[in-house]
């Protein structure tokens, strides 16, 4: 049953236009960041690290949270049309599986986006003539960014299930991005999911996390994911959507 649910969700996306959005926003992030890097090489002299500061700022701080919100809104779009939630809620699939399946599909999409972004980063770096080896930390930034996206996905999926509007959850995500930036600046980033994404991807600081900070990072993301997933599942079970 669970495999069939995954297949059904994936089937909805296979021929959809969301892939165009998933490709376009990382490309725009890379273009903006690499152009900024190219015209400021006199100041940005740390090659791959400097390039990362430019491309990840646009991508990790703004575009990725928006992409997550778009994925969550889109994956709930069909259910909101023609009152299809009634069919979903009366099907023999457990409520927990309905939410978990959607969250897994979003996690897969974000992982694909992360790998795509990494490939673009490497290609652009070579085009710009960076001769040194790509930093090993890059893999950690990509993976931690993906892990942090899970807690944001749980929040946005919860919003997209409750809110019929496609644009409203995306707007909320954008507001949370700016709140997260403020929390990061005030050094409370570990306690807000959208700030955890910035920390995980090394958007504003490429200094490696200590062992304690790494543990805290993963624990907080797990807690946020479980908390908001549990709340969303409880809401599905008890509320009329």
Helical region count?
10
What is the β-strand count?
Answer: 0
The backbone outline, from C-alpha atoms, is globular
**SS class:** mainly alpha
Estimated share of beta-strand residues: under 5%
Distance between the termini: 23 Å
What value does the Rg take, in angstroms?
Answer: 19 Å
Largest sheet: none
SSE order, one letter for each helix or strand: HHHHHHHHHH
Q: If you average the pLDDT, what whole number results? A: 88
Keywords: Membrane, Transmembrane, Transmembrane helix
Protein name: ABC-2 type transport system permease protein
Organism: Paramaledivibacter caminithermalis (strain DSM 15212 / CIP 107654 / DViRD3)
Transmembrane segments: 20-39, 51-76, 103-124, 139-159, 166-186, 215-234
Structure characterization notes:
It is a single chain. The chain has 241 residues and is mostly helical. The chain has one domain (2-238). Helices cover 77% and strands 0% of the residues. It contains ten helices and no strands. It has helices at residues 2-14, 18-38, 47-75, 77-80, 85-89, 95-127, 137-162, 167-185, 193-200, 211-238. Helix 2 (18-38) runs antiparallel to helix 3, helix 2 runs parallel beside helix 6 and helix 3 (47-75) runs antiparallel to helix 8 (167-185). The longest helix is centred in the middle third of the chain and has 33 residues, at 95-127. The protein is globular. The two termini are 23 Å apart.
